[in-house]
Design a protein that fits this description.
Helix content: over 70%
Largest sheet: 2 strands, antiparallel
Structural class: mainly alpha
Strand order of the largest sheet: 1-2
Distance between the termini: 42 Å
Shape: globular
Number of strands: 2
Length: about 260
């Protein structure tokens, strides 16, 4: 007589996430160009922006090397947009799997978002290797705080992505709005400029953006002399926590209706 293995709800939930995670890895690694582009794209953007900015500040931007000034901006903003884009499509992408009662939309969201987090960890390791090979000496004064910034950006992007993913199940046109909203993020999140480059009277137009606070704080934790004028860790924390709470509440209320549409 066959023996039936009983698994706890937590074990089933983790197994489902891991299975979807492996499915995402398999689908990504079959696209060799897409995988390579995930590493090449940030490198091209970083190189172009450093070349453009260097003549203006002589290779040093507000007491930190221009190369690393750009790196922190590009990596964090691309990380946010990448995780947001993948998460916002997560529920619809794996909709056929919801026929199995063990699979819930949140499993898909978590698996895909964890995969994006792993992607960016690999990218950071690759950039660190390049810095070592080219004899750059990056300074990271507060590595723990820097890692927390990366984690907060990830939580923020996944939370907003979950809200958009749920909304798209009811109103598909939300995807068009999403594209319009994400395009300006490259320009208002401090990739190429610092908040210190902008006159104080214009800060009100950009400092509502929590991603700008994350980028500026990451630079500050790496190079304290850079300063943290105009940004607030408290604002970033509150925005992230509020968005996460809102996303989880909306999910709890509407996930069954979302997958039945």
């Amino acid at each position: 007589m066959a023996r039936v293995l009983k698994r706890s709800a937590v074990r089933i939930f983790s197994d489902v996430i891991f299975a979807i995670f492996l499915r995402e890895i398999k689908s990504t690694f079959t696209d060799k160009f897409g995988l390579s582009w995930a590493l090449i794209s940030p490198m091209i953007m970083i190189t172009a922006m450093v070349v453009i900015r260097n003549p203006f500040d002589g290779g040093n931007t507000h007491s930190m090397p221009t190369a690393f000034f750009v790196v922190y901006g590009v990596v964090l903003v691309q990380f946010f947009l990448g995780a947001f884009e993948k998460t916002s499509n997560a529920i619809q992408k794996n909709k056929p799997l919801y026929a199995f009662r063990q699979v819930q939309p949140i499993s898909s969201v978590l698996a895909i978002s964890f995969f994006e987090l792993l992607n960016k960890i690999v990218l950071l390791a690759f950039l660190a290797l390049l810095a070592y090979l080219f004899k750059f000496a990056p300074e990271v004064t507060n590595p723990l705080a820097l890692l927390l910034i990366v984690f907060k950006v990830w939580v923020l992007s996944v939370s907003i992505g979950l809200l958009f993913s749920l909304s798209a199940c009811f109103v598909p046109e939300v995807n068009k709005v999403k594209a319009i909203l994400t395009r300006p993020m490259f320009f208002i999140s401090g990739i190429f400029f610092s908040l210190q480059d902008i006159p104080r009277k214009y800060w009100v137009y950009v400092d509502w953006n929590p991603l700008l606070h994350a980028v500026e704080l990451a630079r500050f934790y790496a190079y304290p002399a850079y300063g943290s004028v105009g940004v607030s860790a408290f604002y970033l924390n509150i925005t992230t926590l509020t968005t996460l709470t809102l996303a989880l509440c909306c999910y709890q209320i509407s996930w069954k209706q979302a997958i039945s549409r």
